[in-house]
Amino acid sequence: MAISFFSHQWQSLQALFFILDYVLASYIRARPSYGDGADFWCLESSAPCSTYAAYFAQELDFLDLRNIANLFRTSLQEIARASNLVSEDTRLFPGQLLPVPITCGCTMNHYFANITYDIKLGDTYYTISTTVFESLTNFTAVEQMNPFLEPKNLHTGEEVVFPLFCKCPSKAESENGTEYFISYVWQPKDSIWSVSAMFNVSAPAIIDENKLNGYTDISSAVIPPLMIPVSDWSDVTRSEGFRPKIMQDKLLPGVSGYLGKPIMYDADVIMRATMNLNEHRRVVGSVYRATIDGKLLAIKKTKEDIAKELKISGRSSLSVAENP
Ligand SMILES: *[C@@H]1O[C@H](CO)[C@@H](O)[C@H](O)[C@H]1NC(C)=O
Ligand SMILES: *[C@@H]1O[C@H](CO)[C@@H](O)[C@H](O)[C@H]1NC(C)=O
Ligand SMILES: *[C@@H]1O[C@H](CO)[C@@H](O)[C@H](O)[C@H]1NC(C)=O
Ligand SMILES: *[C@@H]1O[C@H](CO)[C@@H](O)[C@H](O)[C@H]1NC(C)=O
User: Strand 110-118's sheet: what is its strand order?
Assistant: First the structure.
């Protein structure tokens, strides 16, 4: 009798477990199939860190390194150095990706990089977040960060803090080799593989960090910027994403400064490749088109002895920008 009672009890217990299990499973399934992006949680006591936001150079104002530096309130030198640009006057190309140095800190238990922006006529939190800051922040985060401002009544010249999503490695993550998290906004043309190649960071590491498991179509999902875990900065600066670019086969007029590091060639190699700086090889100003070792290059004749500037001796005084 007793045995039968127990077994009855056991059955209902099983049923209960089954129901619980079922409810739990459907609860999990009812959640969107994607995660909520990286975990930005922090303690107010967490120390701030220096890190990077990946920013696409864009028309009209932000093809100029100086303007980008002003926007992010960083120095021209710092931004040029982070991007491996030799000249601070480098004209950028639309869509060129730059690692912009930012300081990431903890506000209200959420990692953010505070960027102060001066409101201009017609600006709204939404337009500035999505256009100028390329969705590295969102308007609700801006509202929360500026509780004393009236979003519908902004005045020209008013200072607004735009909190960019960012993240500092925890102690465990640092010990695991993560040096930085780069903030990167998913683009419609991206795939997890292209992003992995762009930063030279393994796809599983990006998927893990951003809880992208189960994502099939990230582009349709609303997620905060991806946090790209980087263990070796030099891998990133050499990676596909940050390699300085010249638009394919279209050398823009007004190419100034150097795109990336100049490569030095002996003068006679350059003279041969440009047919003694032949007029037919001239693109614009003192920029010539040349093919050396099968690579299409833009050659810029410099007035100063750039070799001296670069502390290289015995080479020509011509600098070369590579067209990848
Ligand atoms: C960011 O700005 C907000 C608003 O001005 C401020 O309360 C917060 O302390 C700042 N956070 C950091 C880490 O500086
Ligand atoms: C903006 O970011 C905050 C913080 O992660 C998030 O809670 C909120 O849903 C986001 N808002 C929009 C409109 O994406
Ligand atoms: C550290 O790395 C190991 C092995 O790669 C991994 O299993 C672990 O989850 C990592 N821990 C953190 C905190 O990232
Ligand atoms: C990073 O770059 C190195 C050298 O180019 C390459 O061998 C490696 O496969 C790359 N790693 C990833 C994850 O893309």
Answer: 159-165, 110-118, 97-107, 49-56, 180-184, 226-230
